[in-house]
From TrEMBL:
This is NUDIX hydrolase. Pfam families: NUDIX (PF00293). Its EC number is 3.6.-.-. It comes from the Bacteria. PROSITE patterns: NUDIX (PS51462), NUDIX_BOX (PS00893). InterPro entries: Nudix_hydrolase, NUDIX_hydrolase-like_dom_sf, NUDIX_hydrolase_CS, NUDIX_hydrolase_dom. Residues 91-218 form the Nudix hydrolase domain. It comes from Shiella aurantiaca. One of its GO terms (molecular function) is hydrolase activity. Belongs to the Nudix hydrolase family. The keyword Cell membrane does not apply.
Length: 229
């Protein structure tokens, strides 16, 4: 499981997975009871963490306090149990969105001073794929054809004092009509732009970790599909 907290990724993996400690800037014992912000720099490995450690970890990471942190990898003995524990600590919200292609260009939206992908929450009774198409078409005023599922991302945030765990389903799409393309201003979208590979690479630096993660999965999916042809 890969979870983003304030744009910082936490990789949760089984303790049985072989990891090279020399690839990390700091290695911690998961049985520790007190976390110090000063050691969270670069890539951090926490070995065999207890479920209770995640509560302290989230509190430490909230508010973008760990400026020098790149990533955290946490190994756990029971991956399934930890996932259930994490979900029990948050209100779960589901959303869906997509990477839209037109010829050799990809569509990005500019919202809240970041380049982003169109997405939104599921309505009652909607499937993730239905919501993904609806949200993309509403936010960009275009028509799309649904493609393969890319995967899902998880990230946490606090809203009105409540801790939210948001699961977003992502799909590949092809644009079928963009003749009236326009940003949905009421959703704080300031701009929409088709970008080639160079523009996309530059814009992703001014984006979120979750969005870069989606593109990594998307590129793997496209490579796999190309190899099957």
């Amino acid at each position: 499981m890969k979870l983003f907290v304030d744009n910082k990724p936490i990789h949760i993996v089984k303790s049985s997975k072989v990891l090279d400690p020399t690839e990390f800037d700091c290695v911690l014992d998961g049985r520790i009871t007190t976390l110090s912000a000063r050691v969270f720099k670069g890539d951090v490995l926490i070995k065999k963490a207890e479920k209770s450690l995640f509560e302290s970890l989230f509190l430490l990471m909230q508010g973008n306090k760990l400026k020098k942190l790149d990533s955290i990898t946490v190994t756990v003995d029971d991956n399934t149990s930890v996932k259930h524990y994490l979900k029990s600590r948050f209100k779960i919200i589901e959303a869906a969105g997509g990477i839209v292609r037109k010829d050799d260009k990809i569509l990005l939206i500019y919202r809240l001073k970041k380049w982003d992908l169109p997405k939104g929450k599921l309505d009652k009774g909607e499937t993730p794929s239905q919501a993904a198409v609806r949200e993309v078409e509403e936010e960009c005023n275009i028509s799309v054809q649904l493609g393969d599922k890319i995967g899902s991302t998880w990230h946490t945030y606090t809203q009105n004092g409540k801790r939210i765990l948001k699961k977003t389903h992502w799909y590949s799409m092809v644009c079928t009509n963009d003749s009236r393309m326009a940003p949905q201003l009421e959703e704080d979208i300031e701009d929409i732009r088709w970008m080639d590979t160079r523009e996309l690479r530059y814009s992703l630096y001014d984006s979120y970790g979750t969005i870069r993660s989606v593109f990594q999965k998307y590129n793997k999916l496209r490579k796999k599909l190309d190899q099957s042809l």
